[in-house]
UniProtKB/TrEMBL annotation:
<feature type="repeat" description="PPR">
    <location>
        <begin position="436"/>
        <end position="466"/>
    </location>
</feature>
<feature type="domain" description="DYW">
    <location>
        <begin position="648"/>
        <end position="743"/>
    </location>
</feature>
<keyword id="KW-0677">Repeat</keyword>
<dbReference type="InterPro" id="IPR011990">
    <property type="entry name" value="TPR-like_helical_dom_sf"/>
</dbReference>
<dbReference type="Pfam" id="PF20431">
    <property type="entry name" value="E_motif"/>
</dbReference>
<feature type="repeat" description="PPR">
    <location>
        <begin position="130"/>
        <end position="165"/>
    </location>
</feature>
<feature type="repeat" description="PPR">
    <location>
        <begin position="468"/>
        <end position="503"/>
    </location>
</feature>
<dbReference type="InterPro" id="IPR032867">
    <property type="entry name" value="DYW_dom"/>
</dbReference>
<dbReference type="Pfam" id="PF01535">
    <property type="entry name" value="PPR"/>
</dbReference>
<comment type="similarity">
    <text>Belongs to the PPR family. PCMP-H subfamily.</text>
</comment>
<dbReference type="Pfam" id="PF13041">
    <property type="entry name" value="PPR_2"/>
</dbReference>
<dbReference type="InterPro" id="IPR046848">
    <property type="entry name" value="E_motif"/>
</dbReference>
<dbReference type="Pfam" id="PF14432">
    <property type="entry name" value="DYW_deaminase"/>
</dbReference>
<dbReference type="InterPro" id="IPR002885">
    <property type="entry name" value="PPR_rpt"/>
</dbReference>
<dbReference type="InterPro" id="IPR046960">
    <property type="entry name" value="PPR_At4g14850-like_plant"/>
</dbReference>
<protein>
    <recommendedName>
        <fullName>DYW domain-containing protein</fullName>
    </recommendedName>
</protein>
Length: 743
C-alpha cells in the first residue's frame, strides 16, 4: 500500500535538491519518480531531473521515465545528456533496447539533435517499426535540411505494410522537399483523403511558397473551408518570400477584419514583407507599418526583440527618419536592453555609424550589453572601413566574459573580414574551441571575399559538420571570384550527389557567374533554361555582367529586359547596356539607353568612396565635391597621375561619355572617388590605421581604369592598397592585384 506521506514528500520538492530527495524516494513506486521527473522537466529543470534520476534506485527506473527524459533531451537539443542517459540505460536496463516505445523516443532525440547517423542505425536495428518510428526519422532528416533523404525514407515508408503515414509525417516531409516532390506528395494527400487536414494543407501552402509557386499556394489557401492562424501565417509568409508585399499586407488586413488574432510569426512576416518588395507605395507602406506597430504595442508583442527589430528594419527601409525611431523609442513604457538592441539592429546595415553612436549612448545610460547586443554591434562594425571599431568591441566582449561564445566569435570572423583583415578573421577561427556550422561558413565566406579560393577549398574538407546551402554559396562564390570553373562545376554537381542538398537560386546565380565570367556564356544561358525555378534578378544580373565583360550584345538585351520587369527602378540594366554599346563603339545606342533611363526617372547610384584617417571617416564623391581639401587633393592627384603615366599608366577612356573631348574624358576618369580617397590617404600617411596600409571602401564595383591605376600606384608608392568594392576585396601590392585582373 502506498505511504500516505509520499505525495507530500514529492510536492515539497521545490525547496529541496535532488540529494535531499533520495531518502524520501526510498521504498516508493516507479510512478513516484516518473511524476517528479515530469514535474521538474515541465519547469525547465532538466538537469535537476537527470540528477534525481541518476541518484535514485534503479528499481524505480521505468520505461516511461526513460522515455520522458529522452523526450526532454530532444526538446532542448541536449545531445550529450541524451548520450549519457542512453549509455546508462544500456548498462542498467539492457532490455529497453527491444522496446518499441523507448526506441522511438531515442530515434526522435538523436534526430532532433542532428545525430542522424546514429538515429538511422537504431532504426535499422529495430525488429518492429510503427508509424512513429518512420515519422521520427523522416522529421529528423527534414529538420536538418536533408530533403532528399527525407523524401526517400517517406517513399520507403509507403511500401511498408500496415504503416499508413499520418498528418505529421506529411508535414515533416513537405517542410524540406522541392517543388516536384511536393507535387507528388500533394497528389498522394488527395488520394489518401487528407486534403481536409489543416496541418497538411498549411504545409503544402508553405512548400509552394518556398518553391516560388505562390499562385498555387494562393489557390490552395482559397480552397480551404476554414483557416487556422497557421494558414494565414503561411500565406502571408508566401507572399513575403515572393516579394509581393502588398499581397501580404492585403491578407493581413483581411485576417484582421475577420477578427482573427495574430502572433509573433504573423508580425515578423508582415514587417518583413514591407522590406524589398515590389510595387509598395512608400507613403502607404510607412502608414501601414506604423499601424501594425501600434497593434504590436497593444498586444505586447513589441516587447520581443525579434518583433521590435523587424519593425525598426521595415520602418527604416521605407524611409522613416531615425529621429522618429528615437521618439517612438522614448514613448514606449519600457526602454530596456531589448529596445536599445532593436534600434541598433535596424541601423546596423543601413547606417553603421548611427548604430555605433546608439551603442555608445546605451553604455552611457548605464545598461549592460548582452550577447545579442554585442553580436549586432559587431555586425555594424562590419560596415566600417577599418577594423578599429571591431577591435574595440572585441576587447569589451572579453571583459564582459563572453570571449568563448560561439555566436560572438562568428560575428568577429565576419566583422574582421569585412573590414579588410582576413588575418584577424583566421586568428579568431583558429582559436575557437568549439565551432558550429556558422563558424565554418563565415570563414569560407571570408576567404571567398578576399579572393582566396584555394584556402576555402582546402578548409572545406576539414569541416566536421554536414554542410548546408550557405556552405555551398560560399564555396561557389569563392570559385567565381578566382575563375575556378572546373572546381565550381564539381562542387555544384556534388551538392545533390554527395550531400543531398538541392541547389537553390543563389547556387544557380553563382554558377551562371562562374560560367559567364569565363566566357562560357552559352553554357550559362543553357543553365538558366534548365533551372527548376524562375530565375530572379540576381541570376539575370550575373548573366548581364558576363555579357558586359565579353561583349555579348544580343543576350545582354534579354537580361536587361528581364531586369526591367523585375526591378524597374534599378539602374543596373541601363548602365550595363550603355557600357556594352560604348565598349563596342556604338555611342548612339549608348546615348539612347541613357535617355531612356532618364525618361523613366531611374537614377544611377553615385559612386562614393570612404577612407578612415585618424578617427574620422572621410567620404568622397566623383570629383571630390564638398570635401574641404578638394583643391589640394586634386593638385596632388594630378602630380601622381603624371608620375604613373611615366611608368605605363594609360587612362581607359572607352567608357567615358562619348560626346565630350578626349582630354575631358581623361579628367572625368582622374577624379573618380577612389583615386581622390587614395591621394587623401597619402597626404595623411601618419594618421592611417591598419599598419599604414591604405584601406578604401567603395559602394559600387571598381572600374577598369581605377583598377589599373591602383595597381601601378601600389608599386610606385610602395604601399599595400586595399579596396573593398560592392563585390569583393582587391589587395593591390607591388603593382599586382589579388584578383589577378579577374573580377
Amino acid at each position: 500500500m502506498r505511504c500516505p506521506t509520499t505525495r507530500a514528500c514529492f510536492v515539497s520538492i521545490r525547496s529541496f535538491s535532488s540529494s535531499n530527495l533520495l531518502p524520501a524516494l526510498a521504498g516508493h513506486e516507479p510512478n513516484d519518480l516518473l511524476n517528479e521527473v515530469r514535474l521538474l522537466s515541465s519547469r525547465g529543470q532538466l538537469h535537476q531531473a537527470l540528477s534525481l534520476f541518476y541518484n535514485s534506485s534503479p528499481e524505480l527506473h521505468s520505461l516511461q521515465t526513460y522515455a520522458t527524459l529522452f523526450n526532454e533531451c530532444a526538446r532542448h537539443g541536449y545531445l550529450q545528456q541524451g548520450l549519457r542517459l542512453h549509455h546508462f540505460m544500456l548498462a542498467h536496463f539492457p532490455s529497453c533496447t527491444a522496446d518499441l516505445f523507448v526506441t522511438n523516443h531515442l530515434i526522435n532525440m538523436y534526430s532532433k539533435c542532428g545525430y542522424l547517423q546514429y538515429a538511422h542505425q537504431l532504426f535499422d536495428a529495430m525488429p518492429k517499426r510503427n508509424v512513429v518510428s518512420w515519422t521520427a526519422l523522416v522529421s529528423g532528416y527534414a529538420q536538418c535540411g536533408r530533403g532528399v533523404e527525407s523524401f526517400r525514407l517517406f517513399s520507403d515508408m509507403l511500401a511498408e505494410r500496415d504503416c499508413r503515414p499520418n498528418d505529421f509525417a506529411f508535414t515533416s516531409v513537405l517542410s524540406s522537399c522541392d517543388y516536384l516532390c511536393g507535387k507528388q506528395l500533394h497528389a498522394l494527400v488527395l488520394k489518401m483523403g487528407l486534403g481536409a487536414s489543416v496541418y497538411v494543407t498549411n504545409s503544402l501552402i508553405t512548400m509552394y511558397s518556398k518553391s516560388y509557386k505562390v499562385e498555387e499556394a494562393w489557390t490552395l489557401f482559397k480552397s480551404l473551408s476554414c483557416w487556422s492562424l497557421v494558414s494565414w501565417n503561411s500565406m502571408i509568409a508566401g507572399f513575403q518570400l515572393a516579394k509581393l508585399g502588398m499581397h501580404a499586407v492585403g491578407v493581413f488586413v483581411k485576417m484582421h477584419h475577420e477578427g482573427i488574432g495574430f502572433d509573433r510569426a504573423t508580425l515578423l512576416s508582415v514587417f518583413s514583407s514591407l522590406c524589398g518588395s515590389h510595387g509598395i507605395d512608400i507613403n502607404l507602406g510607412l502608414k501601414f507599418c506604423f499601424q501594425v506597430y501600434c497593434l504590436s504595442v497593444k498586444t505586447g508583442f513589441i516587447s520581443e526583440v525579434e518583433v521590435a527589430t523587424a519593425f525598426m528594419k521595415a520602418y527604416s527601409e521605407l524611409g522613416g527618419d531615425v529621429s522618429e525611431f528615437y521618439h517612438l523609442f522614448l514613448e514606449t513604457s519600457c526602454q530596456d536592453i531589448i529596445f536599445w538592441t532593436s534600434m541598433i539592429t535596424a541601423l546596423a546595415e543601413p547606417d553603421p555609424a548611427k548604430a555605433f553612436f546608439l551603442y555608445r549612448r546605451l553604455l552611457r545610460e548605464g545598461l549592460t550589453p548582452d550577447l545579442y547586443t554585442f553580436s549586432i554591434v559587431l555586425k555594424a562594425c562590419a560596415g566600417f572601413v577599418t577594423e578599429q571599431h571591431a577591435l574595440a568591441i572585441h576587447s569589451q566582449v572579453i571583459k564582459a566574459g563572453f570571449k568563448d561564445e560561439t555566436v560572438l566569435r562568428n560575428a568577429l570572423i565576419h566583422a574582421y573580414a569585412r573590414c579588410g583583415s582576413i588575418a584577424l578573421s583566421k586568428k579568431v577561427f583558429e582559436e575557437m574551441g568549439c565551432r558550429d556550422l556558422v563558424s565554418w561558413n563565415s570563414m569560407l565566406k571570408a576567404y571567398g571575399l578576399h579572393g582566396k579560393a584555394k584556402e576555402a577549398l582546402q578548409l572545406f574538407p576539414q569541416m566536421d559538420l554536414k554542410p548546408d546551402t550557405a556552405t555551398f554559396v560560399a564555396l561557389l562564390s569563392a570559385c567565381s571570384h578566382c575563375g575556378m570553373v572546373e572546381e565550381g562545376l564539381r562542387i555544384f554537381d556534388s551538392m545533390f550527389k554527395d550531400h543531398g542538398i538541392i541547389p537553390q537560386l543563389d547556387h544557380y546565380a553563382c554558377m551562371v557567374d562562374i560560367l559567364g565570367r569565363a566566357g562560357r556564356i552559352v553554357e550559362a544561358e543553357e543553365l538558366i533554361c534548365r533551372m527548376p525555378m524562375e530565375p530572379d534578378s540576381v541570376v539575370w544580373s550575373a548573366l548581364l555582367g558576363s555579357c558586359r565583360k565579353h561583349g555579348e550584345t544580343q543576350l545582354a538585351k534579354t537580361a536587361v529586359s528581364k531586369l526591367k520587369q523585375m526591378e524597374p527602378e534599378n539602374s543596373l540594366g541601363y548602365v550595363q547596356m550603355s557600357n556594352i554599346y560604348s565598349s563596342g563603339g556604338r555611342f548612339n545606342e549608348a546615348g539612347t539607353i541613357r535617355k531612356e533611363m532618364d525618361g523613366s526617372g531611374v537614377r544611377k547610384e553615385p559612386g562614393l568612396s570612404w577612407i578612415e584617417v585618424g578617427n574620422q571617416v572621410h567620404e568622397f564623391a566623383s570629383g571630390g565635391r564638398h570635401h574641404p581639401q578638394r583643391e589640394a587633393i586634386c593638385t596632388k592627384l594630378q602630380g601622381l597621375i603624371g608620375q604613373l603615366k611615366e611608368i605605363g599608366y594609360v587612362p581607359e577612356i572607352s567608357l567615358a561619355l562619348h560626346d565630350i573631348e578626349e582630354e575631358h574624358k581623361q579628367e572625368q576618369l582622374f577624379h573618380h572617388s577612389e583615386k581622390m580617397a587614395l591621394v587623401f590617404a597619402v597626404m595623411n600617411e601618419g594618421k592611417l590605421h591598419g599598419g599604414g596600409n591604405v584601406i578604401i571602401m567603395k559602394n559600387i564595383r571598381i572600374c577598369v581604369d581605377c583598377h589599373n591605376f591602383m595597381k601601378l600606384a601600389s608599386g610606385f608608392l610602395q604601399k599595400e592598397i586595399i579596396v573593398r568594392d560592392s563585390n569583393r576585396f582587391h589587395h593591390f601590392k607591388d603593382s599586382i592585384c589579388s584578383c589577378n585582373d579577374y573580377w
